[in-house]
Amino acid sequence: MTLSTDKPPSATPQEHLDAVTRLLAQQRLVEDFVRRQDGDGEKRGLVESIVHKQNLAELQKRLDGLHPADVAFILEGLPLEERLVVWGLVRSDRDGEILLEVSDAVRDTLLADMDSAEIVAAAQNLDADEIADLAPDLPVDVVQDIIEAQDVHERAQLQSALSYPEGSVGALMDFEVVSIREDVTCEVALRYLRRYDELPGQTDALFVVDRDDHLRGILPLKRLLVSDPEIEVATLTDRDVVSFSPDSEAEEAAKAFERYDLVCAPVVSADGRVIARLTVDAVLDFVRESQEAQELAKVGLREEEDLFSSVWLSAKNRGPWLALNLCTAFVASRVVGAFEGSIEKLAALAALMPIVAGIGGNSGNQTSTLIVRALALDQVSAANARRLLAKELGIGVLNGALWGSVLGIVAWLLYRNVALGGVMALAMMLNLVVAALAGLFIPLAMERFGRDPAIGSSVFLTFVTDSMGFFIFLGLATVFLL
């Protein structure tokens, strides 16, 4: 029994994953059925072996026809045992491409299933910059074996790529550079290009250099193709070029790619020589990975946690963040505990105080999100900080007055207590002002101390808005109602 693998070309990665999951489930079902049958054990084992091979062949045929990114998606969506079954069916010459596509956590599980020789063989099909992407996840001795397996030219490139830290342009750069001298004609340039079987991906321009490979500008391919063949390259060259040093921060390079709509940009040495290039696909991968890491870090998760990690590993990964939340929640509870007497005398306070804290937290998160985004885009400076503060305070007062009045009226309608409605309205406005201040200053403070403002801001913001919300509301109630 096998499942047909005929799929339309437009099949989505999720459809491929569903089909692979069905194949694996069908294989288990048939093998279990064969095992339960009475009869000769040798014949039963033979039937089981035939069915097993038939299903695996069907599954391998499907995997062979998929893009490495789609195979990576399938591997990430399977539990560990089934993931390793599928990984064992992937052709060895595709291992390296797929390892580049999967998440860090899944990559670790796949590498753990490979021996050193298999890892070195997988790396042979990769470029130096791609091997450098994998290197942080590999044992040191395996990385050394990979380096020694390269030829002299590739070894020098790989050692260069490995010398730059993660998060730098040097760690992302690609050594497939197409450059042309500025003193040749367009006809010569076109003859030079025809020597390639195909141009490197993301090539939209040639890097124009002098005799010593110093960058002089770029020549867009769309301009080269329509120009008179007798015109010199120098006359068509764009001199205003965005270039990067290998030591530049990848985050800054990503902003430049977005700002100037770049597809490819030269990477130059300290003396201005073209040594590599940075492409938009590498930048997009970096941005995606950075955003994923930030999203996980916001709630205390690390990239090391696989979706199908063991209970123990997942609990250990999430524990420190929960401990921090426990500490902040305990402090907030002590604020409430200080007003136990007031709550006992007026039970309505217990029902209303979460509203004040919750709305304050939401408002603070809005401010915090905008400030974190502005910090990422370098839009916050000492010159505009006061204006931002005035704006956020104004928004806090306006929203506090508006929604505080609405909640004050609701509180009066529920409990027929005018004073309680007034306390509710005033507490709401004051807590929204506190939320605005916290949403502004917490990210700025984290940035000032060298911490990523996107990581951890929400915990401290919730702590401030909850604690101050309880304190303001219960304090005002104690003064004016009891």
Commentary on this structure:
With 482 residues, the chain is mostly helical. It is built from 21 helices and five strands. The strands form two sheets. A three-stranded mixed β-sheet has the order 1-2-3. Helix 1 runs antiparallel to helix 2, helix 18 (348-376) packs antiparallel against helix 19 (382-415) and helix 19 (382-415) runs antiparallel to helix 20 (418-448). The chain is globular.
Short note summarizing the structure:
This protein has helices spanning 13-36, 41-64, 68-76, 80-89, 95-101, 104-112, 116-123, 128-134, 140-149, 152-162, 186-193, 221-226, 233-236, 250-260, 280-298, 311-337, 340-345, 348-376, 382-415, 418-448, 457-481; strands at 179-181, 205-209, 215-220, 264-268, 274-279. It has 482 residues and is mainly α.
